[in-house]
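Could someone model 2-acetamido-2-deoxy-beta-D-glucopyranose with this protein?
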Amino acid sequence: MWLLVLMLLGLLFVYRWYRQSQILENISDKYVFITGCDTGFGNLLAKQLHKRGMKVLAACLTEKGAENLKKETSSRLQTIILDVSDGKNVSSAVEWVSSVVGDRGLWGLVNNAGIPGDMVPLGWLKTNDILKVLNVNLLGLIDVTLTLLPLIRKAQGRIVNVSSICGRLPIIPGGHNISKYGVEVFSDSLRRELNDFGVKVSIVEPGAFNTSLSVLPFIKKSVEDKWQMLPTETKRIYGEQYFKKYLQNMDNMVKSSSPRNYLVTNCMEHALTACYPWTRYSAGLDAKLYYIPLSYFPTFVIDYLASLKTPKPAQGTK
Ligand SMILES: *[C@@H]1O[C@H](CO)[C@@H](O)[C@H](O)[C@H]1NC(C)=O
Ligand SMILES: *[C@@H]1O[C@H](CO)[C@@H](O)[C@H](O)[C@H]1NC(C)=O
Ligand SMILES: *[C@@H]1O[C@H](CO)[C@@H](O)[C@H](O)[C@H]1NC(C)=O
Ligand SMILES: *[C@@H]1O[C@H](CO)[C@@H](O)[C@H](O)[C@H]1NC(C)=O
Ligand SMILES: *[C@@H]1O[C@H](CO)[C@@H](O)[C@H](O)[C@H]1NC(C)=O
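Reply:
Sure, complex below.
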C-alpha cells in the first residue's frame, strides 16, 4: 500500500519535472518587452534573455540606464525611455513596440518597474505618498498591460508580473505592500479571462533580494527625511527610540537579503520560455520556506510574529 503511494508520488514528481523542463522552440523569433531595466531584476533579465537569443525591448526610466544596457549588449536589444506612471509616455511606447514587432505581435511582457516608496510606518504618511507608489507599481502596471494587450493576444503570448512576498505579508511598510497586494488581487480574475485567448499569465514573488530597491543608504535617507519632516506631535507619540530601532530593523533586513538575484530572473525566464509556465513562482529560500507558508497561518499568529520585531511607540498604550 505505502509502496504504491510512494511510487505514485515519485511518478508525479517525475512528470512535474519533465513538464517544467519542456522549453519552447524558436525562442529567438520572440520579442519580450521589459519595464524598469535601469537596474535590479529588469536589468539582469534583459541581459539574460538577450544572451539566450531572444529579442529584447528594454524600457528604462533614465537615458543613463538605457545607454549602459546598450553598451553591454547587441542590436538584438533595443531600448526606450519610459515612465510607466505617465499615460502619454505609455501610449507612445506601445506605438513603438507595435511598429517593431509588426504582425507577429508581442510574445512577452514583464511588468517589473516598481518603486519602494517611503518605507515608513503608515502613521507617518499622507494619502499622497501612497498615491505616488500606486501610480507606478499598480496603475502604471495596469496601464502598460491593458495597452499592450492587443499585441500580446495576437502572439498568444505571456505576461509576467513581479509582485513580492509583500503582496502576501506586509514586510516592507509604507505604500509598497499595498501596491503589490493590488497586483496579486488583479491576477486571478484576469488570468482566467486571458486564458481563453491563449495568453498565459504568471506572477513572480521574490523574497528579500539585493536589488536597487534595497540600497541601504537610500532607504535610510528616505526614512530619516520622513522622520525630520513629521509634525512635532507625531514625533513625540512615536519617540526617538522608535525611530532608531526602526532604522536598525531596516539595516538588518537589507543585510540579510540574498545577493542571488538570478534566482528571480530564472523564474521570469521560465515563465517566458517554458511550454508550460507555472502561474506562480516564489524566488528565494526565505519566500519559499518562511514567508509563503507563514501567509497561510491565522492572522493572530502573523501579527504576533510581526510584533516581535517592530519597535514600540513611546506613547503607545501597551
Ligand atoms: C520554428 O522555426 C522553423 C523554421 O523557421 C519552423 O519551420 C517551425 O515550424 C518553427 N516552430 C515553431 C514551434 O514555431
Ligand atoms: C517618455 O518621456 C520621456 C521624458 O519626457 C521622453 O524622453 C521619452 O522619449 C518618452 N518616451 C516615449 C516612448 O515617448
Ligand atoms: C502594509 O504595511 C502596513 C504597515 O506595516 C500595514 O499596516 C498594512 O496592513 C499593509 N498592507 C497590506 C495590504 O498588507
Ligand atoms: C498582472 O497585472 C495585470 C494588470 O493588473 C493583470 O491584468 C494580470 O492579470 C496580472 N497577472 C498576474 C499573474 O498577476
Ligand atoms: C548588494 O549589491 C551591491 C551592489 O551590487 C553590493 O555593493 C552590496 O555589497 C550587496 N549587498 C549584499 C548584502 O549582498
